[in-house]
Automatic annotation (TrEMBL):
Residues 1-25 form the signal peptide. This is Cytochrome c. The keyword Electron transport applies. Coiled coil: none annotated. It comes from Neptunomonas marina. Gene3D superfamilies: Cytochrome c/b562. Binds 1 heme group per subunit. InterPro entries: Cyt_c/b562, Cyt_c_II, Cyt_c_prime.
Amino acid sequence: MEMNQMMSKLMLTVLLLSVSVGSAAHNGHDHGGSEANKTVIYRQSVFKMMGWHFKAMGKMVQGRAEYDAEDFQRRAKLVHALTQMVAEGFTPNTQDADAETALKDEMWYQKNRFDGLVKELQEASSELAKLPVTADKNELRKPLGRVARTCKQCHDRFRHPL
């Protein structure tokens, strides 16, 4: 599947997820329906989708799921595409959102550090997505681990424990 087709499908998925989350929020849980709250829901959706694909890749590399090189690469490309959407979910207006979030306030005071970690995540996920389909799963451990460590650095610094 071409990257443009994959991006189109990803954007459609994000749109549908946003609509369904928005509908659920409208049924009494949207904390006022402000743009800030909608942006928080957007970023949470992006991270949930990223986690969905990342967990599947981790299981393949760990031997807890059958390794499918094409599926792994597809998921790696999707994770990388999702990393390009992260910044949109951290607009200044979300600092005052009343939607539930695990984001620590420190992120707003260390925004340059946060942005640097997002860039590291984008670079690490790009390297992972560029690996050939023929890559042995053992060759994927190190680049997948780099993505995981980048996620962990950001979580440790800027996210309250869930």
